[in-house]
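CO-FOLDING WORKSHEET

Operator: S.A.
Ligand of interest: magnesium ion
Run index: 196
Mode: holo prediction, single chain
Checklist:
[x] sequence pasted
[x] SMILES validated
[ ] output reviewed
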Amino acid sequence: MSDDLFAEDDDANTPLEAEEREALIPSYITLRRELNEAEQVNIASAMKWLSSQRGDILDEKFLRRLHKEMFGQVWKWAGDYRTTARNIGVEAYRIGTEVVQAIDDARYWVENETYSPDEIAIRFSHRLVAIHPFPNGNGRFSRLVGDLLAQKLGEAPFTWGRANLVDPNETRKAYVAALKAADNHDFDALIAFARS
Ligand SMILES: Nc1ncnc2c1ncn2[C@@H]1O[C@H](COP(=O)(O)OP(=O)(O)O)[C@@H](O)[C@H]1O
Ligand SMILES: [Mg+2]
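OUTPUT RECEIVED:
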């Protein structure tokens, strides 16, 4: 595996556009592992911020703020929707509308108990990562959103395979397979994975 900062080390790792590489805030970062580490530190501070928050997770402004809190020390565009195309995700100009629609649907599922709490949280989390609203961090963002929605609905946060899902490994393979099943509207594997 290459240690290049923006190498595409598996098909589920979204490559960055050249213009986005310029948006890196810490100038010392030259290696992917340094980037991963800086992002991890940033996410830890977001978790701290979250513990003092009472905001509703089913709210567009809160979701964007959460992404900014998770990645705003590392990336200039944290919290801003992407403006360029990806191999995963909707066309950039549709992101805002799609996120609002996803929120409306999730609110309806909660009010009407359309699915179990776990299934509501996983459907919403998957919907977000399928939209792919941000230039990067969508996987980690969507999993945290799933955890927060599960908690709002009275469940424990998910365990997501109890492994590092950022680097390529067997657990990540199972995770991506479950995401692909969910792309085809079969959520059972992703729910089971998230509780494994
Ligand atoms: N087929 C797919 N359907 C939906 N989501 C996917 C699919 N393949 C990969 N993903 C998600 O996209 C994420 C990669 O997007 P990215 O924005 O780089 O997030 P992160 O940087 O947090 O990994 C993966 O971690 C995974 O959550
Ligand atoms: Mg990424």
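REVIEW:
Helices lie at 18-21, 32-50, 60-71, 95-112, 117-131, 138-152, 170-183, 188-194.
Residues 32-50 form the longest helix (19 residues).
[x] output reviewed
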